Amino acid sequence: MSSVRIPQTGSVITDSASGSASSSKPIVFTASNPPLLAADQLIFMEEPDKALGEGTTGIVYNGLYLPTKAHALIEVAIKVYKEDADDDEVPDEIDFIRRIEGVKAEATTLMQFQSPYIIRCYGITITPIRICLVTELMKGGNLEDALQNDCLDSQPVKLKIALSIVTALKEIHKKNYVYGDLKSANVLLTKEKKAKLADFDRTALESNIKMSGTIPYIAPEAITGIQTKKSDIYSFGILFLELMLEDYQLFVDAFAAYYATEQSLLFFADVAKGKIAAQIDKLLTACKDSSFTSLITSCIHSNPEERPDINQIITTLNLLIQNASPKYTSASSSSAATPRMHSDADPVKRDKIIKRTPSRSSPHRILNFFSPSKEITNLTHHVKSHTMRKSY
After folding, report:
1. Close Cβ partners of 233 (under 8 Å, ≥ 6 residues apart)
2. Which one is the CATH code of 143-385: 2.60.120.560, 1.10.238.10, 1.10.510.10, 1.20.1260.10?
3. pLDDT in tens, 320-363
4. What's the pTM value of the predicted model, to 2 decimals?
5. How far is it, in rounded angstroms, from Cα 136 to Cα 155?
């Protein structure tokens, strides 16, 4: 299959093979679908090798969006949907239709949530050579990078980020959706470290959700094919543990063996054997604040029904914020005012961090099994037959 054609610096997205910009609408949508933006309303501002990020379904670039001639240009993030490089037997036309359905589904879901805790979607653009989702640009990067770079050395800031994430989940759950892939890489930050949830390509109504998630955030029951709002609570528990650990490298090392795509089945097997629970227990021991560990352990309870209600989590986080010390700094943070970046880290530690970097270098960490293999089916039986976490 041909590769997605990436625009050059300052180029306008075009809707014809000749390369001429056009405001015509190549696809007709109903009023209930997301706005279809004219191709000449978008301009890419980055070189192809300077993408903002990459996931399983697309590559994200910086760009400009012109709503109308009367408006000023708006800085945006433009997600270009990838072709299905893993299935050479699928004709280009079928793959193109699948990508259209994918961008429509993600945009339609996103636009249901007009929230300060969820990124804003401006619309989509579809041309014969490119399919794009246009959202607001978050200039602070994603939460995972911020943690890797030690940019968050304040306990209150971390707790407020956690509160924003849970508040976003509350709004998603209120509409009977399951987010489906909660992880630090899907939490975007402003320069002021305000958090918003992004990447809704795995989000679906609870009645229609398919097995999806990312190691190590995926809930044990989701591996067996049962994914609910409580599975999002489990994922939040793991994310909150990641966020509040004083030594972030402990989290990196705990699951390093599972990040390669081919190790997904090993992770499932180790869930059934209790090895993942043991790794999490070690991390909980390293998280010395009992108020944090209490919330985390309740969120990752082996029985989904025993996990706390979203409102209980919000109440707890508000109390933790009230009692948080503004003088708190992580054990790994520098005493200098400027946050430590990758280039300042020692080579060994930086290498470990880079190996763990998810969406850009290892986009296949996302697990999305629509037709479980025989091996997964067998593991499902074992997972259902074992206690995957001890109760707290």
Report:
1. 169, 299, 304, 307, 308, 310, 313
2. 1.10.510.10
3. 999 886 654 443 333 333 333 233 333 333 233 333 444 333 43
4. 0.77
5. 27
